[in-house]
Amino acid sequence: MTDSIMSKAATMEIPINSNGDTGTLPEDDSLEQDLQQVMVSGPNLNETSIVSGGYGGTAEGIIPTSSIKGSNMHHSSSSSSMTAEEASRGVAVEKLETVKKWGLNTYKCTKQMISERFGRGSRTVDLELEAQIEVLRDTKKKYESVLRLARALTNHFYNMVQTQHALGDTFADLSQKSPELRDEFGYNAETQKLLCKNGETLLGAINFFVSSINTLVNKTMEDSLMTIKMYENARLEFDAYRSDLEELSLGPKDAVAMARIDAAQQLYQVQKDKYERLRSDVIIKLKFLEENKVKVMHKQLLLFHNAISAYFAGNQQQLEQTLKQFNIKLRPPGADKPSWLEEQ
Length: 344
Hints:
It is a single chain. This protein has nine helices and two strands; from the N terminus they run ααββααααααα. The chain has helices spanning 2-11, 28-40, 65-69, 71-117, 127-177, 182-249, 255-312, 316-325, 340-343, and strands at residues 49-51, 62-64. Helix 4 (71-117) crosses helix 6 and helix 6 (182-249) runs parallel beside helix 8 (316-325). Residues 1-28, 30-71 and 336-344 have low confidence and may be disordered. Strands 1-2 form a two-stranded antiparallel ribbon.
């Protein structure tokens, strides 16, 4: 009992008033509660301090044990953080240089474009190649018109076939319900069904024609025009850097100016190589495009002519033979939509 009281007294905090008098001691119950709270929420061992100089020493002698245990860890983490900072700084500098080059290039190209627009600057001209490019653009517009009209014809003809189909069903129904006009309604129903069948065959040929023209116009020609656009942008950049080099060459020839001229010469050579490479690509694509266009249109125009002629001549056998000649397979009725297995 005496030892318990002494241990409690040794751990009690004795409050000191401003006058130096000791205050009253707290009750035993409150002291036990404080001790229980200290035991439950005790100090973290990783943050335990070593006090030098004994009890009541100054704070200058306190050394956190966490710093002793984790000194190596802190050093490695600081090194990794510095490496990450250097990497992020390098990325930022690289992005800044990219934006700077882009801004300078845009300025030069805009200046060259304005100079050409107002007739103050010179531009590189390839008369033969530019004539071929203009022919291609004009041809694409005309083929787009053919494609638009062919689609309109397909839609109108499809509606006519559907009307013939409905009319044939109506004639067949009236043939059963009108005994006095059974023969008349009967052969009109057969005629409409035959026309409907031939019309569906012709629609297969026209749809194949439209699909081929669409591929030629919106894929093959469009791919060539994209390359031409890249070539025209390269031509503008080439002329911009060429003009910049010419302006520097007319200026003073001191050490700083010569360094700028050398840098401009290198940039000019890079743009020249890019321009010549794209020019060669455009020439090759235009050549292959012309060959492909002639081959495709020869086949499609022959198909269109034979199918239309056979349909309006009422020659069902020749119409079916035309589709076999061009390897066109008609979809059976109800095959427009894919099955639920194909949609999965």
